[in-house]
Specification:
Blueprint lengths: L15 E2 L13 H17 L18 H12 L18 H13 L10 H7 L3 H19 L5 E6 L4 E6 L2 E11 L8 E10 L3 E3 L1 H14 L3 H4 L2 E4 L6 E2 L15 E4 L10 E5 L7 E2 L13 E3 L3 E3 L2 H8 L10 H8 L3 E4 L5 E5 L3 E3 L5 E3 L23
Parallel strand pairs: 2-15, 4-12, 11-13
Antiparallel strand pairs: 1-4, 2-3, 3-4, 4-13, 5-10, 5-14, 5-15, 6-9, 7-8, 7-9, 10-11, 16-17
Length: 388
């Protein structure tokens, strides 16, 4: 693990195309072996007493104090710096080597790679070694299950890291920020294959969203449905109705079909990526792209919104007859719904990994946002959790 720092780069706040870096994906054929190696390493760290809690000090390049010595010792303990780094001439000085090691630590914990000890970095540094070992052990069955049957081209969505990787032969082609389900409407975990990409999709609002979100807004503002181009039908495939003729205080919302037309207000925006699953979830674009710039991207009702969706769709359909990159703008500008079957095999995994190790030597940790660690959770629909 001493060489781990050499493998890291700046954690992008937007999509980063990283194929030229030859970075291993979150889950590959070698992930289980990598996890076993990481577990053995952290078992040794725990057996030796773990690491000492750092003093609460905001540290940056140029700082010189005993707290810097403690930080240096802490990063050596977990392998981000070599042992001989403790013997530098001025161990109490925050130098470039220490900054690079700290950036590597931040990268592996999903923290902006500032090279500074901010509040998030401080909290991650002080997480006990015993808890990190527990996370690795708890996530080993997940890594094993998510990797089973994984083909050469795959899409990996990790909910705790709110990121998606497009992967070719175990190497990351691109990494995208995503928005996942709210704590009270969590995103499920699953294994599937992409079936089609639908341009300019209709949005068929689930009854739960109709009841929780759409109807309250309509009852407050009778023009809301027209403004959002939402039409209401008496059941799926039934006749269209005037929503103002229904007593929504007594009517059952699941009797009616609320459908939003394609266009700029559509909740799915330009495109939807479908795959068979019992949870009725999918990946899609969004008109609210500002959400991709925040850290805690848990704002959806269970589906996954993908940043830089054009790049994502171009990768899915790459090499397929009947599609080239120039067509994306032309198709979406038409506002006509256009489904395109995906002929190649692209595996999909929605995963819940709070710890994972990669073949290129990185050990990664993320917060347990849905409170699932220790519950033997692998696949399925998580129970709603209270707001943190």
């Amino acid at each position: 693990m001493g060489a781990v720092a050499a493998n890291q780069g700046k954690l992008a706040t937007r999509t980063a195309v990283i194929a030229d870096r030859n970075e291993a994906a979150m889950v590959t054929r070698g992930s289980e072996e990598a996890m076993q190696g990481a577990i053995a390493m952290y078992e040794e760290i725990v057996a030796q007493g773990g690491w000492t809690k750092l003093p609460n000090a905001k540290l940056d390049r140029g700082a010189k104090s005993k707290a810097v010595v403690k930080l240096r010792e802490r990063l050596v303990r977990e392998g981000y710096l070599d042992l001989d780094n403790l013997g530098v001439a001025t161990p109490d000085a925050f130098d470039d080597d220490l900054a690079r090691a700290l950036k590597s630590f931040q990268y592996n914990h999903g923290i902006y790679t500032s090279g500074k000890v901010d509040s998030r970095t401080y909290a991650a540094l002080n997480m006990p070694a015993e808890h990190r070992l527990f996370q690795l052990q708890d996530n080993l069955p997940r890594v094993r299950a998510y990797g089973e049957g994984l083909g050469s081209r795959n899409i990996l969505v990790n909910i705790p890291s709110v990121q998606l990787e497009t992967v070719e032969d175990g190497i990351v082609f691109a990494r995208h920020n995503v928005v996942c389900g709210k704590l009270e409407r969590p995103t499920p975990t699953l294994a599937s294959k992409v079936s089609d990409v639908t341009f300019n999709p209709y949005w068929n609002a689930p009854a739960s969203i109709v009841a929780r979100d759409i109807l309250p807004k309509f009852l407050e503002d009778p023009g809301y449905l027209d403004q959002m181009r939402i039409r209401v039908f008496d059941g799926v495939g039934g006749p269209e109705i005037d929503p103002r003729t229904v007593d929504w205080y007594s009517a059952a919302p699941d009797r009616y079909h609320f459908r939003q037309e394609p266009g700029e207000h559509n909740s799915l925006a330009t495109v939807k990526v479908n795959f068979a699953n019992k949870f009725m979830v999918y990946m899609h674009d969004t008109p609210h792209r500002e959400l991709f710039a925040i850290n805690a991207r848990y704002e959806s009702s269970g589906c996954v919104r993908v940043d830089q969706v054009r790049m994502f769709v171009d990768w899915i359909l790459a090499g397929q007859d009947g599609f080239d990159e120039a067509q994306f703008e032309m198709i979406t500008a038409s506002e006509e719904t256009f489904p395109m079957p995906v002929r190649s095999i692209v595996d999909v995994r929605f995963m819940y990994l709070t710890a994972w190790a990669t073949e290129d030597g990185r050990v990664n940790f993320r917060p347990d946002v849905y409170k699932l660690d220790g519950k033997e959770f692998v696949f399925g629909q998580p129970e709603p959790v209270a707001e943190m």
